[in-house]
C-alpha cells in the first residue's frame, strides 16, 4: 500500500504476517518482539498468530507491546498479509493458505520436496529461501546462524546417541584419564562442520574433518586444536575414516540442491556396531544413503547396527537461542523487502536475488529446477 510522499511516515507500507510454526517439534518463531518493534516503527503492520512465540518463551503481550496485532485466525493472517515470515518450510495443510503475488520468506529446502515445490508454483507466490541467499564471496548469511547452532548441537546430540541407554556403544566422547577419547569424523568443513569440530575438540575427542576444498582444509588446519586433523574428501578417505569412528557428522551442503550420498549402506556395514551418525544434511535429503527424516518425538533409528540421528529442524530444540540468532540475520533483509517491495530490492541486492526460488509460477533456482527436472527461469527475466 503506497501513499503520498508527505504522508509516508504515517502510512502503512506493508502488512507482514508471522504465523505459528506447525512442524512437529518446531518451537521457533520468525521474529523476536524486538524485531517486530523495528518493523512497526518503520510503519509496517505486523500480524502475529496467537501463541506463535510461546515455544521460544516470547509471549503475546510482548508482541503487542512491540506494536503487533495478535491474530487468532490463521486464514485471516494469510489472507491479509503481503509478506509471510516463517522459520520452516510450509506443510501440506498450509499450501492452500497462500495467494498469488504473496511473498514467503523462510527456509524452503525445495530440492528435497517436489510436492512443496509444485504447491508454491501453483499458488504463484514469491518464495525467497533463507538457505540460498548468498553474497558475492559465497557466504550464506541467513543459513550461517542456524548452521552454527546445528553444528554445535550435532556433537551434543551425537554424544547422547553413544550412550548405551540410547542404543549406542556406551562411550564417552572425552574419555577419562587412562581411557582413550572417542573418534569423531566430520564430513564437510563449512559452518556446520567447523562448529561441530570446535565442540568435539573442546570435549577432548579425536576429530577428523574431510572436505573437498584444500584451501578450506589449510585454514582449518591453522585454526583448530591439535586434536583435530584434516583430510581430503574422497570415497576412499571417507571409507577408511569411518571404519573406526564412534560418531560421524554429515555436514555437507550444496546451496539450494540435494546433498550427495557420501556414505552408502555398504560402507555403513564397515562401521563399528553402536557407533552413531548425525546427518545435519537431512534438510537437503541427507548425505547418508540410509538417512531418513526424524523428529524430536523419535529422534533416532538403527540401520546395520548404526544409530542414525536425522532430525530435520535441529535448531528447533533450542528455540530461544535460535530465534534470536535468526532474527539478527534476517531482519535487515525483511526491512528492505517491506520498505521497497521485492522487485526493486532484488534488482539491487544480488545476495537476496539468489534467494529467490520461485516466482509467478516459475522456478528461479537452478539447483531446484535441476533436481526436479523443471524449467529454470533467470531471476532477472522474472524481475524485468
Indicate the structural class: alpha/beta
Order of helices and strands: EHEHEHEEHEHEHEHEHEHEEEHHHEEHH
* SS strand fraction: 15-25%
> Over all CA atoms, what is the radius of gyration?
22 Å
Looking at the structure, the CATH topology of the largest domain is Rossmann fold
Task: Write down how many β-strands occur, each being a DSSP E stretch of 2 or more residues.
Answer: 15
CA-based shape: globular
How many structural domains? 2
Query: Do you know the CATH architecture of the largest domain?
Result: 3-Layer(aba) Sandwich
Low-confidence stretches: 1-10
CATH superfamily of the largest domain: NAD(P)-binding Rossmann-like Domain
User: What is the number of helical segments per DSSP (H or I, 4+ residues)?
Assistant: 14
Sheet having the most strands: 8 strands, mixed
The end-to-end distance, rounded to whole angstroms, is: 21 Å
- CATH top level of the largest domain is Alpha Beta
Helicity, as a percent range:
25-40%
Side-by-side strand order of the widest sheet: 3-2-1-4-5-6-14-15
The mean pLDDT is 94
